[in-house]
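quick q for whoever's on today - can somebody do inverse folding on this one?? i tried earlier but teh output was garbage lol. tokens:
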């Protein structure tokens, strides 16, 4: 069975694609949504809301909660033997994108970053989290912000375009083919499918279906290469232009 991860910016359309995959492939895939509800109710508190309202105070706590929730999902997915598994986000994106962004913005301390990195290394090596393929949904930050505003989650009111641009840049450097270097944690060159998410759900699914042979035979070519030590290799590159019909 193939372990597929869906990655991309906030508001890019990950949930919509997961729903479309479930409708299209039925029982041949088992979908694991992002554990948003887990962090919306932690000890009676909405940790997601706390984090957006006071990121300096709550970002570390939030990332600890997300990492644990994601690992539980990865472990459950690994136990699945009767269907391909599709997870919305992963422990990899949590570390490579979101934790690195917090470090870059000074929203977590050096010690907090070290603790999150050490935890990540333990999870991926000792618990052997080995995805087969990543589907990267790619859209301009401006499109993502518009979708966030349209879906109207109360916790997301304070999300800014600058924040989304920072996350977009880290996703690009990790997964986009225009990058000269892959991130050290995952050798992504052969195991990433890039989908233009600046369009409708049905159009994204059509793109994905054109990669079905690669998508569902990924386990035959081996897992993504995962190394113990985290040391992002960032390269300079220009953002590409995105075209497409009106996004959902």
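ok took a stab at it. sequence:
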């Amino acid at each position: 069975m193939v372990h597929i991860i869906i990655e991309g910016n906030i508001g890019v359309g990950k949930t919509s694609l997961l729903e479309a995959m479930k409708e299209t492939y039925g029982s041949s895939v088992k979908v694991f949504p992002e554990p948003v509800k887990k962090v919306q109710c932690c000890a009676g508190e909405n940790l997601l809301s706390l984090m957006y309202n006071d990121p300096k105070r709550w970002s570390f706590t939030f990332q600890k909660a997300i990492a644990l929730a994601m690992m539980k999902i990865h472990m459950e997915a690994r136990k699945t033997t009767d269907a391909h598994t599709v997870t919305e986000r992963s422990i990899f994106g949590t570390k490579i994108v979101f934790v690195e962004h917090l470090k870059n913005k000074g929203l977590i301390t050096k010690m907090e970053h070290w603790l999150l990195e050490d935890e990540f290394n333990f999870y991926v090596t000792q618990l052997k989290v080995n995805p087969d393929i990543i589907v990267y949904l790619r859209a301009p930050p401006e499109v993502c912000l518009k979708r966030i505003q349209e879906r109207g989650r109360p916790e997301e009111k304070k999300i800014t375009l600058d924040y989304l641009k920072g996350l977009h840049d880290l996703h690009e450097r990790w997964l986009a083919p225009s990058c000269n270097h892959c991130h050290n944690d995952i050798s992504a060159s052969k195991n990433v499918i890039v989908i233009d998410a600046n369009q409708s759900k049905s159009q994204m699914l059509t793109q994905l279906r054109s990669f079905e042979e690669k998508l569902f035979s990924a386990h035959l070519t081996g897992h993504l290469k995962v190394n113990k030590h985290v040391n992002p290799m960032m390269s300079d590159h220009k953002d590409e232009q995105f075209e497409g019909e009106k996004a959902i």
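fwiw The chain has ten helices and five strands. also The chain has one domain: 3-221. so keep that in mind when u check it
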